[in-house]
User: Which sequence fits this backbone?
């Protein structure tokens, strides 16, 4: 297999509460693409409505730590007391088979991937305003006042890392944001270094 036939790794990231999960779901609901979602592993308890193997692989801290020792993660982070990580083998296999793989992960983990996978595409999701982010964190109802302030303070620091990403997408409306991400993925495919090998006979052949 040629290197440039490998699938594209797309990393969707951004501060807590910006709506990464909702935008990712909207993206996958759009039917004109062939994207694969990389299900992460976590030690946090399952929330009502979540399914093991669909939303996350829910594992114990011991299992998670064993996987760290076995070098089984592309990246992992401790986030508000729980571990989250991207299982390496599945992502590698999907990419080798030529599939597009989407990671939806927090900012520190995304930057770790950046240092390892040079040709991945990094998208930073931002809220339309700081107020919109705090309203969202409050209305989500999963946080108390203290954790809302901690997450907002963390978000302030994370905004400063946006310049390390390839694209910034505003989540003013979930479907618009998903649509912009799809446009980015299409444009990435058309990039010369990714697509020129397909047109080799045209470009190198006799006219
Ligand atoms: P939640 O507990 O709300 O599902 O997720 C908390 C945060 O962890 C979110 O920002 C989510 O994007 C992030 N996250 C989910 N999976 C991973 C992962 O595999 N690695 C990293 N670094 N972050 C993750």
Assistant:
């Amino acid at each position: 297999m040629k290197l440039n036939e490998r699938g594209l790794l797309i990393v969707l990231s951004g501060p807590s509460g910006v709506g990464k999960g909702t935008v990712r779901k909207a993206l996958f609901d759009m039917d004109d693409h062939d994207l694969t979602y990389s299900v992460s592993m976590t030690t946090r308890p399952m929330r009502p409505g979540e399914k093991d193997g669909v939303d996350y692989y829910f594992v114990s801290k011991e299992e998670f730590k064993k996987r760290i020792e076995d070098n089984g993660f592309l990246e992992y982070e401790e986030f508000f007391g729980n571990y989250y990580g991207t299982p390496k083998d599945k992502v590698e296999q999907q990419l080798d088979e030529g599939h597009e793989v989407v990671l939806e992960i927090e900012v520190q983990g995304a930057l770790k991937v950046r240092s390892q996978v040079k040709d991945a595409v990094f998208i930073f999701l931002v809220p339309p305003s700081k107020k919109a982010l705090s309203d969202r964190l409050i209305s989500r109802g999963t946080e108390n006042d203290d954790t809302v302030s901690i997450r907002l303070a963390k978000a302030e620091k994370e905004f400063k890392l946006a310049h390390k990403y390839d694209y910034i997408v505003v989540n003013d409306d979930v479907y618009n944001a998903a649509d912009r991400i799809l446009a980015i993925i299409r444009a990435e495919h058309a990039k010369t270094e990714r697509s020129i090998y397909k047109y080799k006979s045209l470009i190198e052949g006799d006219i």
The first strand starts at residue 9 and ends at 13. Residues 9-38+99-204 form a domain with the Rossmann fold fold (CATH 3.40.50.300).
